[in-house]
Amino acid sequence: MKLWRLPRLSRAEMIFSAKCFTAAMLAMYVASRMGQPRPFWAMMTTYIVASPLAGAVRSKALYRFLGTLIGCAAAVLLVPPLSNAPELLTLALALWVGVCLYFSLQDRTPRSYVFMLAGYTVALIGFPSVDAPLQLFDTAVTRVEEIGLGILAATVVHSVVLPTGLGPAVLGLLDRSLGDARQWLLNLMQPAPANAAAGTAILTDNRQRVAADITQLRLLSIHIPFDTTHLRWTVGAVRAVQDRVASLTPALSAVDDRLKALKLAEGEIAPDVSAMLGQVAQWLTSLDDARPATDDDALARLRAAIQGFGAEGSVPALSSWSRALRVALAERLDELVEGWCACTVLRQEVDVGLRGIAPRTRGLQTLGSAAMHRDVGMALLSGLAAVIAICLCGAFWILTGWPGGAAAVMMAAVFCSFFASMDDPVPAIHGFLKYTLWSIPFSAVYVLLLLPVVHDFGMLVVVCAPFFLLFGCYVARPTTVGMALPILLGVASTLALHDTTSADLVSFSNSMIAQVFGIVVAARTTRLMRSVAVDWSARRIQRATWRELAEMAAAPPQPPARQASPDLFAVRMLDRTALLAPRVAASGGAVAGISGDALLDLRVGADILALQRVRGNFPSAVGDALMVDLAHLFRERSATHVLDNPPSLLARIDKALSAALSRPQQDALGLRAAISALVGLRRNLFPDAEALPAIPVIEGALA
Predict the structure, then answer these.
(1) For position 289, what pLDDT does the model report?
(2) Which of 372, 369, 362, 411 is nearest to 389 (CA)?
(3) What is the mean predicted confidence (pLDDT) over 680-685?
(4) How far is CA 114 from CA 64, 147, 486, 680, in A?
(5) Lowest model confidence (mean pLDDT) among 483-497, 531-545, 553-567
(6) CA atoms of 157 and 26, how far apart (whole Å)
(7) Which residue has the higher pLDDT, 221 or 656?
(8) What whole-number distance in Å separates Cα of residue 344 and Cα of residue 329?
(9) Contact, 336 vs 185, CB < 8 A?
(10) What is the mean pLDDT of residues 344-372?
(11) How far apart are CA 54 and CA 228, in angstroms?
């Protein structure tokens, strides 16, 4: 029989809990001295914005204050004019919540908290004030003041008392993503292992880690400008590294594919190819942190060797297809070397910023969150589900005259918003509901027994300390935060919603039943309207990719300044890869209608963009027809999810490739880039096609 033991808490967990409790009591004390009617709102706010990282606390504090301010202003504008028409008021507030939720889901960064909070703050303030609309302005002002005090207290305590910077987390992710990309590159440059399956597994693992690291780093970097250390100077360099690593991904994936094609066409990796790969690997391993990869002699020699690789006459007796594969490989290797040089220089810029010196990249314009995948349809559906849930609770409240009905509408708004980014939010809502029910006994003890007998602030601290200090430790623990946070916020929100000096059993029971009712309605409405399976969501993400590929192919020729950015596409595709990977894994490792190679569409998109850049080198009969066929292919895929490709497209690609290869100087007029892109399309869309037939060299074939 095991003896009962006290929970073992780490030092970091206890420090975090102590800081949260200190901030909560500081906010409570100031709010009480200012005469605020509901000082527990200030206390609850300190726990909502709390985070182990000081930079995250400061950014969440700013976003919460802005969201509260916007929500209160909207409530002041909407409630008084419509207070005599409860049906219209309910609809107006519900539509506001739905619209704010839509914009929140479109952002997909921590900034989305502004829109989400602006939405459900209207419900938190507006619905309880329908009986006294003339007092709404005062209520809104006091709510902003109380939440502002909580935000200020949390920011000061977490920034001054043993602050934990973002540096280790950000730099760890940054170096891990660079390390994974470097290891992926080295694995490609080295001979394949004896076990081909093991080699494929290693490369697949590299790809998935790079995609996941970049997405996590992009989300975490939002907090960098708010950090308490010199890390805040590095935001431009960190985001630029993200973009550069993302842009390396299609080239890395393409090199892997070209090497497979060369081995398939020639039976093994030829000596000239091995020698070229060896030069790149030697240059890469010779780099260290003390010497950046700039245009020194070694780099100049390497790039000259790459540009001469695959040129006509460099290796005698090569078939047309082998020559095309070498040209394509050389183009991608050159991209990798150039991109890796940029990554190393940018990484050193980060080190400059960490020393407190503003680096040159501080104000650098980067892609940021603009490149991330957005699902307009699901955002609209989530907003509509929130509108309907709020209207259902509001109708029940109006028809029954239920005194606690306002709490039900508030909870419907909050819970439809909190979990809207999930494919199926219902399990998370049910889990939160379960632990909210667990919080009711604690709430009852505080509201009905302890707080009515508290007569001074010192006694309040003593009464609150045991519960909030203990559960605050478990909030800091990743394995228990899903249990501890709902219980802690359940008690804090109950205290904030009640006048603890006059609460009785009837009002408390009414409020608890209403809260549970609102959560249940939110869960049921969400289940009926917007819960989707992970495989359905994965296919939807895939369709978005195919639609974008169709638009890229159908785009008319543009001058260089207006052409689509390959980096923008690479970042968005890498984000989609990170979104697809867990969904495909949750579906058993495969989803019907989705390619098994998550980076295939990324390579195809890069090839289409490259062809668009050199489209002027082709006769219109060749280039335009190819782009029309590609656009038609991806439109059909997005509609049917059929992965088969028509033989006529292969013939079209071969015609364009034959025309390009027939020129004796493949480095002129962008033909090397065209050959590389056409080889990529052929390999990605028709990997099992026979080798290209021999092509005679005809001077002026593309004239």
Answers:
(1) 44
(2) 411
(3) 87
(4) 6, 14, 21, 43
(5) 553-567
(6) 9
(7) 656
(8) 23
(9) yes
(10) 67
(11) 7
Q: Decide which of 427 and 510 is more confident.
A: 427
To 10 degrees, what angle do helices 671-685 and 647-661 make?
160
Q: Is 665 left (phi over 0), alpha (psi -120 to 50) or beta?
A: beta
Q: Which two tokens stand for residue 85?
A: 């028409």
DSSP state of 10: -
From the number of C-beta atoms within 10 Å of its C-beta (0-12, 13-18, 19+), residue 639 rates as: exposed
The model's confidence at residue 593, banded by pLDDT at 50, 70 and 90, is low
Dihedral sign (CA 325, 327, 329, 332): negative
Question: Span 364-388, mean pLDDT?
Answer: 77
8 A C-beta contact, residue 133 and residue 80: yes
Going from the C-alpha of 665 to that of each of 4, 432, 698, 699, the distances in angstroms are 81, 66, 11, 9
DSSP of 288-351, one letter per residue?
A: BTTB---S-HHHHHHHHHHHHTT-TTSSTT--HHHHHHHHHHHHHHHHHHHHHHHHHHHHHHHH
pTM over 0.90: no
**Local confidence band at 102 (pLDDT 50, 70, 90 cut-offs):** very high
State the DSSP code for 221: G
Residues 409, 414: Cα–Cα separation, whole Å: 9
Per the DSSP assignment, residues forming a β-bridge with 291 are 288
Between vectors from CA 499 to CA 497 and to CA 501, what angle results, nearest 5°?
150
The DSSP secondary-structure symbol of 466 reads H
Quickly count: other Cβ atoms within 10 Å of residue 513's Cβ. 14
Task: Render pLDDT for 283-307 as a digit per residue (tens, 0 to 9).
Answer: 888 775 444 445 467 788 888 888 7
pLDDT tens digits, residue range 631-644?
Answer: 888 888 888 877 77
CA distance 153 to 158: 8
CA–centroid distance for 412 within its chain: 26
- Beta-carbon contacts of residue 50 (< 8 Å; ≥ 6 apart): 16, 19, 20, 23, 57, 154, 158, 475
Which pair of structure tokens corresponds to residue 685?
Answer: 């869309």
Both structure tokens of 51: 């985070």
Q: What is the distance between the alpha carbons of residues 170 and 218, in angstroms, rounded to a whole number?
A: 10
Cβ atoms of 426 and 527 closer than 8 Å: yes
Give the span between the Cα atoms of 279 and 314, in whole angstroms.
Answer: 17
Please give the single-letter amino acid code of residue 27: A
Calculate the dihedral angle through the C-alpha atoms of 397, 399, 400, 402, rounding to the nearest 10 degrees. Answer: 20
